[in-house]
Design goal:
mainly beta, 2 helices, about 35% strand
């Protein structure tokens, strides 16, 4: 994560601090924290185990492959063409990692739009992130959720097999 990037906690409230940072959207219920990693250094693959609602359809079992900081390949088992149409139509830095999030809400259960707030869920997003402190500007944003992920930061487990480790 680049120095100087703050975490963004979705606490259901758009307050003065959010507005000062260009954030004007909140989700209800809340319960996750996001950070923008350095957009230039994504490497490897991620396969989301939850379908993502995108522009009115479910995009399921999507895999994103990153090489040298950019999205090199993608595929999905469900509605791949729908994802492709939105992605190819978009302009700007749509092919960069945008955010990594961790769900913190212990009362949330996986299902529809609350997957990312479920305690221990890990979200990985591509596309625009300038509204949450990043540098990528695009009209495309796609978040995917992992419910059984392990996430470590500087050698410390934050999420272990889909459970908060803190």
């Amino acid at each position: 994560m680049p120095a100087g990037r703050e975490t963004y906690s979705d606490d259901c409230i758009v307050d003065a601090d959010d507005l000062d940072h260009g954030r004007n959207v909140a989700n209800i219920p809340g319960g996750n924290i996001l950070v923008c990693p350095d957009e230039m250094f994504a490497e490897g693959s991620v396969v989301f185990d939850r379908p993502t609602p995108y522009m009115g359809k479910w995009v399921g079992r999507i895999r994103l492959d990153f090489k040298d900081g950019v999205l090199a390949n993608y595929r999905a088992r469900q509605n791949a063409g729908h994802f492709k149409a939105g992605y190819e139509k978009a302009s700007g830095e749509k092919n960069r990692i945008a955010a990594i999030g961790v769900g913190l809400n212990p009362k949330a259960r996986a299902g529809f739009l609350q997957d990312g707030i479920t305690a221990g869920a890990v979200t990985v997003a591509i596309g625009g992130n300038d509204d949450i402190g990043g540098a990528s500007k695009t009209d495309f944003y796609f978040p995917g959720v992992l419910t059984k992920a392990t996430l470590t930061i500087d050698g410390n487990a934050i999420v272990q097999n889909g459970k908060l480790a803190m």
